[in-house]
Amino acid sequence: MVNHKEILRLKSLGLTHREIVDAAGCGRNTVTRTLARAREQKLDWQQAQSMSQQGVSQRLFPTEQKDPVYKMPDYEWVHREMQKNGVTLSLLWVEYCEQCHQNGELPYGRIVNLASMNSFVAGPKMAAYVASKGGVSQVTKAFANEWGSRGIRVNAIAPGYIETDQTRPLMDDEKRYKEILDRIAVGRWGQPEDLVGPVLMLCSEAGSYCNGLVMPIDGGYLAR
To answer: Is this structure's pTM higher than 0.70?
Structure first.
């Protein structure tokens, strides 16, 4: 939640716009809008300091009772802003979320990380790889807990053996290839296209109740 009272206090200390943004930990648009509303309402720090934080916010932005709706990002605006020096996706994300909450809307976000079936099982001579993929699994769950209530769904896909240039050495090893194939329940290695459907599902409303999920896409390899 934006601390509008703190923004007014910082302004009374003579801080610049950028210094207020950094000190208050909010977006540029939020500071601009707060100070503009304060001028319209003739609310200065001398008055605001005796009010509660919630009281200042309600004075500046009277609460409207309505059911929250999801707000899709304005991607054209994002691309324009990214052309400016000093603008980052993190900064735009903060501003987008604040704008949503001020308008009684929920930000719409879907994050799909790339884990692996080695997030679940390990093998010899691959300690660094399995450690990194285990980390992807855990950070997916951590962010799902942090951002789920803010309209953001964080999940991961965990591919099994997929036919790519990276797995070509395994495919060329007839003995190892057969060992792997014998364990895959559907009887074939995966294709890159097999990952498309699950990702689309997780990014759409069909996956709106999926959060913190690490989804194996392995043809049943882990089921055996």
So the answer is: no
